[in-house]
Design brief:
The chain is mainly alpha-helical. The protein is built from two helices and no strands.
Length: 41
C-alpha cells in the first residue's frame, strides 16, 4: 500500500461514506476502516 495522506482519509470519510454511518456501531464498517487506515495510526 502506498503512503496515506490526510486527504485520503478525509476523502474516504466525507465522499465515500454516507454521514448516517459515521457514528453507528457496525463491526463490518470498523473492519473496513481498520483494513484501509490502520497503517496511518
Amino acid at each position: 500500500m502506498s503512503a496515506l495522506h490526510p486527504r485520503d482519509i478525509l476523502d474516504f470519510w466525507f465522499k465515500e461514506i454516507p454521514s448516517d454511518r459515521w457514528f453507528k456501531s457496525d463491526p463490518a464498517f470498523d473492519a473496513v476502516l481498520r483494513d484501509r487506515f490502520e497503517d496511518a495510526w
